[in-house]
Design brief:
Largest sheet: 2 strands, antiparallel
Strand order of the largest sheet: 1-2
Strand content: under 5%
Number of helices: 11
Number of strands: 2
Structural class: mainly alpha
Radius of gyration: 25 Å
Helix content: over 70%
Distance between the termini: 56 Å
């Protein structure tokens, strides 16, 4: 499906086939399985080293080091949780894609009626921009220590950098100045790529499905609003019944979407709250300019991720309520009284706004972004108070 090609690309880069189509056999290659489990094991090893480093930092009272490594742990945890949850929910996701295929425009004429090109261009533009932003982020972090070594020590020769790793970890052996350094370096490269790809792919998949849901809501509203009612009660009834069935299918899609993405979204907002707080704290304690650039990119990417989800949540909420307005604009005053009575139910249901949900705890709209930033600031103020004391 055109909407999901970018998400599928990033999923395949970590060995996941997120869904299967009815036209495709339900088989996963041995290579994909090996790649997936190699990524999971590698991520687990790296995050274990980060937890050991966190424990040592706390025991020595190094708050800044602890906050730094907690930012990375949150990033890895979020990427791994999204990746594993989609892997677990593959059967449900496959059923949802099968339903989307059923109501997808089937020919060029239908694509024009649905205004498919407009939605596809918007989704593609946002997907490419977001994927590039996160790719630049992760490879900036991955290559930062290596570039410092090459520029400052080898080229300019103004300071000794030494063999450092992109992310602070602790392992109970001397990994510096021997072959295990290069092994850990490449292991962290792949761990960073895996974590970023897991987040990019899941976010892009959510955006692709949300865009199609909005497209169907908008199309239904246009069909209902532009339909001219005649005097034939049976014909009007068939039209109304078709509109209700179509609306019910869209609502059922939203239920499945919230079931699949609810837990990852809740984790996303919880972890992002702390990551934004931790990165903001690091930027206020006095860091070199090159580190400040790296942290600014991290903070900007985390906020873009949250805003992207909130933006699509708002689009769904707005589109879901448009059907009521469209139905009211019909020439229902010329229709049979039975049709007018039935139309009340079509108008009433969309007035209960359909939300993208992070489980039952949170309805996601743009206002959610404001709430998250307020919570992040409160934790940031607490950290600053602890650091000053």
């Amino acid at each position: 499906m055109k909407f999901m090609k970018y998400a599928v690309f990033f999923y395949k880069s970590v060995g996941i086939e997120p869904y299967t189509k009815s036209s495709r056999p339900r088989k996963i290659s041995l290579w994909s399985n090996l790649l997936f489990w190699a990524n999971v094991i590698n991520l687990s090893v790296i995050v274990t080293g980060e937890f050991l480093h966190l424990r040592i930092s706390f025991s020595r009272g190094k708050l800044i080091d602890a906050v730094t490594v907690m930012s990375y742990i949150g990033f890895v945890f979020l990427g791994m949780s999204k990746m594993l949850f989609i892997w677990w929910k593959k059967p449900d996701l496959s059923d949802m894609v099968h339903e989307l295929e059923h109501i997808y425009p089937q020919n060029k004429d239908q694509e024009k009626v649905y205004r498919l090109d407009s939605y596809l261009r918007s989704c593609s533009r946002i997907s490419i921009t977001y994927a590039l932003l996160y790719s630049v982020l992760i490879w900036t972090f991955n290559l930062f220590s290596t570039m410092q070594f090459l520029v400052y020590e080898k080229w300019l020769k103004i300071r000794v950098v030494g063999q450092t790793l992109p992310y602070p970890v602790y392992f109970p052996w001397n990994w510096e100045a021997n072959w295990s350094y290069y092994q850990l370096l490449f292991s962290q490269y792949f761990a960073g790529h895996t974590s970023a790809s897991g987040q990019i792919a899941t976010d892009l998949l959510l955006c692709a499905v949300a865009t199609q849901v909005v497209m169907h809501f908008d199309h239904l509203a246009r069909v209902v609003g532009n339909h001219h009612l005649g005097g034939d009660w049976s014909e009007n009834l068939r039209f109304l019944a078709g509109a209700v069935r179509y609306h019910h299918r869209i609502l059922r899609l939203m239920d499945v979407l919230n079931d699949i993405f609810g837990v990852p979204l809740l984790l996303n907002f919880m972890v992002s709250t702390f990551v934004i707080c931790f990165v903001g704290f690091q930027m206020t304690v006095g860091v070199p300019p090159d580190i400040m650039v790296k942290l600014s990119l991290f903070l900007f990417s985390s906020m873009c991720q949250v805003y992207l989800i909130c933006h699509y949540g708002q689009l769904i909420a707005d589109a879901s309520s448009g059907l009521s307005i469209a139905a009211y604009k019909q020439n229902w005053n010329d229709a049979d009284v039975r049709y007018r009575r039935a139309l009340v139910f079509l108008i009433a249901r969309p007035q209960r706004t359909t939300y993208l949900k992070a489980t039952v705890f949170m309805n996601i709209t743009r206002a959610t972004m404001t709430d998250l930033l307020q919570i992040s600031y409160k934790f940031f103020a607490l950290l600053r108070t602890m650091y000053i004391k």
